[in-house]
Every structure is written in C-alpha cells, then in structure tokens.
Amino acid sequence: MFLILSYQNEEILKKIKDFDENSAKDILDNCLKIHCDLSGKNEKDDMRTVIYNIFNEFMQHKASNIYLKAKYWKAYCLLEGYGIEKDKIEAQKLFKEVADAEENKNPCKHDAELRYAFTLYNKGEKINEELLKYLELAAEGGNATANYNLGELYYKGELVPEDKMKGRNHFAYAAQKGHPKAMEMCQTLGID
C-alpha cells in the first residue's frame, strides 16, 4: 500500500511520464491489486482517485506494452465511478478500443470484449448483434464469464433463439475454467 500512497505526491506522478517499462509494469500491477482490494469501499474514494490518475498517466505511453492494460482499467473506473464520475459512454468507447486492439499486444483483450458487450446491454431489450459478437469473441478467447453468460442466453432462449446444446456447451466450458455458477448449472443439468 505504501507504494501507491507515495504517488499522492505530484512530483512522483510527474516521474511516471519518464518511466522505464519494467518499473512501470510493477507500479501498474500494484495499482490494480490495490484497486481490486478497494472495490465496494466508499471511504477509499481518495485512493481510487489517485489510482485513476495513475491509470490515466500510463495511458500517455501509447508505445508501451502497458498502455492497453491502463486503458482497460481506466474504462473500468469510468464504468464503476471509481475515482471519477461514472461515464458509461466513455467507458464503452475505451473498452471497445481495447477489445479491438491486436491480441499479441493485449493482455486485457477478452476481458475488454466481455465488458464492452455488457455495456451494450439494456435490460429488457433483445440482444443486438454487436453485443452477441463481442460476447462470443470473449468466450472464444477463454473468458469463463462470457461462456457462462452465453450458456444462460442460449439455454433459456430468453433474448436469443433457444439452443440448449449450445447453452450446455458454454456452461461446460465455463465450469472447466472454474466459474462457480457454471459449475452449479452443470451439476443441476447433469453435465459432466
């Protein structure tokens, strides 16, 4: 925690602009760890603001390998209102940019595809083609949550045409990846 607290000093934030990539990756990874630990704790808004600003600073380094990771987490902060006012439209734009970036340079591609798909969903509306496309891309990339959600959609046939076999296959894959709800569904449906 002391590493992040030291970044409250504006002098240190300025030094990020001249980072070397290895130490920057360590800093970003520590930010992500602390950011995840802060989820749901409103009293930590000041820390979230500092972390959001660090993600924002890292985004200035477009040539670096951590640029897309920082962009993904900035989008996440915008979507959830961590350290900044919620902005679903801007978050959606950033998630899509990360989702559409080349895979070999993109550690967050499949998570971004999932998040982008989720931002396209409006409760009660039919699933649109773009949402389904990105959910399927995330699932093909191995994202267990995307597979679980596709399993739900296809098995129940509520927002897409029903296809129980496809739904069962998605549940099975998500369960193999350790997704708890998918594991429950597999047990309920008798899927090995």
UniProtKB/TrEMBL annotation:
It comes from the Eukaryota. Transmembrane segments: none annotated. InterPro entries: Sel1-like, Sel1_AlgK, TPR-like_helical_dom_sf. Gene3D superfamilies: Tetratricopeptide repeat domain. Pfam families: Sel1. Belongs to the sel-1 family. This is 19466_t:CDS:1. It comes from Gigaspora margarita.
